[in-house]
Design brief:
EC number: 4.2.1.96
Family: Belongs to the pterin-4-alpha-carbinolamine dehydratase family.
Distance between the termini: 31 Å
Strand content: 15-25%
Protein name: Putative pterin-4-alpha-carbinolamine dehydratase
CATH architecture: 2-Layer Sandwich
GO molecular function: 4-alpha-hydroxytetrahydrobiopterin dehydratase activity
Number of strands: 4
Number of domains: 1
CATH class: Alpha Beta
Number of helices: 3
CATH superfamily: Transcriptional coactivator/pterin dehydratase
Strand order of the largest sheet: 1-2-4-3
InterPro entries: PCD_sf (IPR036428), Pterin_deHydtase (IPR001533)
Amino acid sequence: MAADLLSVEEIDEALLTLDGWEVVDDSIRRELEFDDFMEAIDFITRIAVYAEEMDHHPEIRNVYNIVSLALTTHDAGGLTQKDFDLALKIDIEA
């Protein structure tokens, strides 16, 4: 069963609790820069644990020390509370 889509107002309110995320199309996105490649990979490994536990997997792109993330709930067709819950855990690791 798909999670419920959030309203524009709920999305705007949830964004206030996060650091550096923005809405792009039907997702929230953030880019992080680390000191080097290994720090970026370590970060990806840490957030992968949360994603697997939550059964909610982000789009992750890594180029050297830059990690780009996008979250959306594909089976719901947009943003749900699951996206913001995972984004908050990602922010704690960043």
